[in-house]
Design a protein that fits this description.
The N terminus is likely disordered. The chain is built from three helices and 37 strands. By secondary structure, it is mostly beta strands.
């Protein structure tokens, strides 16, 4: 009898441990890479890198055997002078209710239930949700495996989605989108559940338009990265080089620049001597191009008011971690509530502060966008946001972990940032990086530049999403009808080729096997080579 009791206890303990599946873990702050994002609050710039999302359980309560986990509140609104919901649900909704048998219930924006069966096994299927037209979305466990999550081995399940109408499978953007659920750490891959299944792309928190289909967990090491940290030996390794642009001047808001002072610097590292972890002596060659005052007269035709010049010089400088950073705005990912605020009276209004994340050279990049001096107004029985009468600022800063600042943009005005006002700006960015085997952007010969070709030197290439699945977009800051875009395999063989470079260049990648590929953009000023992952 005693042996039977012990056996029953062992079976019970094993079963309880085996059913330890859940979508969120109370007490964890988990970061996710969301889909491509576009801001609605700024008519000048659109950001296409992936927005930074998070899961944070604010509180929980129990009722019988059910436990409800409440998420933090968000601010939602569709633009200026529109009513804002200051206690709106996040991308996962207001809460999730977990039952003792592992069934979890989320609520979407229509108040409908999304059902997640965390204890389901391979071959099991159930109704995830129904949309407003009556379509049924069925989830099926189609696979499982082992992965390393937060440094520990963990099991995961893959939930595939198929859409039905009147009992028949139908085409839908959510078809074949996979959810990945780990046993001990919750979601590895999920959707914007607040908008599922009624909305694919649309308004997110803070007047942003985002893709709701691609939300992938970041390892929580990301949350502890010091984005100010500069890896001196990595950054200043011999043969590394980069091209840096610095410019300041004035512009009519929403129009091309009418005046600027510009410097383009190309640094190539020759050698270094490490003095300490925070100090290094670097020998490098510097090619520099300067122009005193220039302006656009319309379109893409520059007009020059003064002479320009170039030079080559050799330097040996002592560089410390501090002076290598060149950080204008402090960008840190470890915010407790990124993008979250219900306080509408702050002069640095967090409603307009957004963070975006991507990878470059295998390292995390983090970008911040902030609009200042907006007016919160309580009108028509709701909070609204609009422009101030005078004064304003737009700030953008992008940092590469281990390298430092990649981009900094600061525009301010004595008047509101509205059309036909004169604004003052300072802009710095890297158009080319070569760090070991990683190359980003387009290399140009700085000393051979002339006034008529400086605008071409500003070409910056971005690739998103990365990793990609069905499509990838090559984004360029300039157009070039003679350029060639090539998608290569890892050995350099050409798989796809496209003539002409537009601002947005879309390449279908659905037929490619998962793996690592290369994208080459070749122009008459040089070529860039970027790594692309296909999942």
């Amino acid at each position: 009898m005693r042996l039977l009791s012990i056996l029953l206890v062992i079976i019970f303990v094993h079963s309880a441990h085996a059913q330890n599946w859940k979508t969120v873990v109370s007490g964890d702050t988990t970061y996710f890479r969301g889909g491509p994002h576009q801001s609605n609050y700024d008519m000048i710039y659109s950001y296409y890198s992936d927005i930074l999302k998070m899961i944070f359980v604010d509180s929980y309560s129990s009722s019988g055997n059910d436990t409800t986990f409440s998420f933090y509140s968000a601010v939602r609104g569709e633009g200026t002078w529109q009513c804002l919901d200051t206690t709106a649900p996040t991308w996962l909704g207001k809460s999730v209710t977990r039952t003792i048998d592992g069934v979890e219930y989320y609520q979407n924006s229509f108040g409908d239930t999304i059902t997640i069966r965390t204890f389901a096994n391979i071959g099991d299927n159930w109704i995830l949700a129904k949309d407003t037209s009556g379509r049924t979305f069925v989830g099926s466990i189609v696979g499982s495996g082992q992965s390393i999550v937060e440094g520990t081995a963990d099991s995961f399940k893959i939930i595939d989605i198929q859409t039905y109408e009147n009992g028949n499978p139908v085409t839908d953007p959510y078809n074949d989108k996979d959810l990945e659920l780990s046993k001990s750490h919750g979601w590895l891959k999920t959707l914007d559940l607040y908008r599922f299944p009624n909305q694919i792309n649309g308004w997110e928190e803070f007047g942003a338009v985002t893709d709701s289909l691609h939300i992938t967990r970041l390892d929580n090491d990301f949350a502890h990265l010091d984005m100010h940290y500069v890896d001196l030996q990595w950054k200043y390794a011999p043969s590394n080089e980069w091209i840096h642009h610095k410019e300041s001047g004035t512009t009519v808001w929403g129009s091309p620049y009418i005046g600027a002072h510009k410097t383009i610097t190309h640094d190539s590292v020759i050698s270094y001597t490490l003095l300490s972890p925070d100090s290094i002596v670097v020998s490098f060659v510097r090619k520099q191009y300067t122009v005193g005052n220039w302006q656009y007269t319309g379109g893409m035709n520059p007009h020059w008011d003064s002479a320009s010049g170039s030079s080559i010089s050799y330097h040996t400088d002592t560089i410390t971690s501090g002076n290598a950073r060149l950080i204008i705005n402090n960008v840190q990912p470890e915010l407790v509530y990124p993008n979250i605020s219900s306080q509408l009276d702050s002069p640095d209004h967090p409603l307009f502060k957004s963070y975006f994340t991507d990878t470059l050279c295998g390292r995390v990049t983090l970008e911040m966008y902030l609009r200042q001096f907006v007016i919160p107004t309580y009108s028509n029985s709701c909070w609204q946001i609009g422009n101030s009468i005078s004064g304003g600022g737009l700030y953008n800063n992008k940092t590469l972990h281990g390298f430092g600042q990649l981009l900094a943009y600061n525009i301010s005005s004595g008047f509101a940032l509205t059309p036909f006002t004169l604004d003052y700006y300072l802009k710095e960015y890297h158009s080319y990086l070569k760090l070991g085997s990683c190359t980003y952007g387009t290399k140009i010969d700085v000393t051979s530049l002339d006034a008529a070709s400086v605008w071409k030197a500003a070409n910056v290439i971005n690739i998103y999403p990365n990793p990609a699945k069905d499509n990838v977009t090559v984004q360029s800051s300039v157009e070039d009808k003679d350029a060639v875009i090539s998608l290569l395999d890892i050995s350099g063989g050409t798989l796809i080729q496209k003539s002409g470079l537009e601002r947005e260049n879309r390449i279908a990648t659905g037929s490619l096997a998962p793996g690592i590929y290369l994208i080459r953009v070749a122009t008459k000023n040089g070529s860039s080579l970027s790594k692309l992952a296909i999942r």
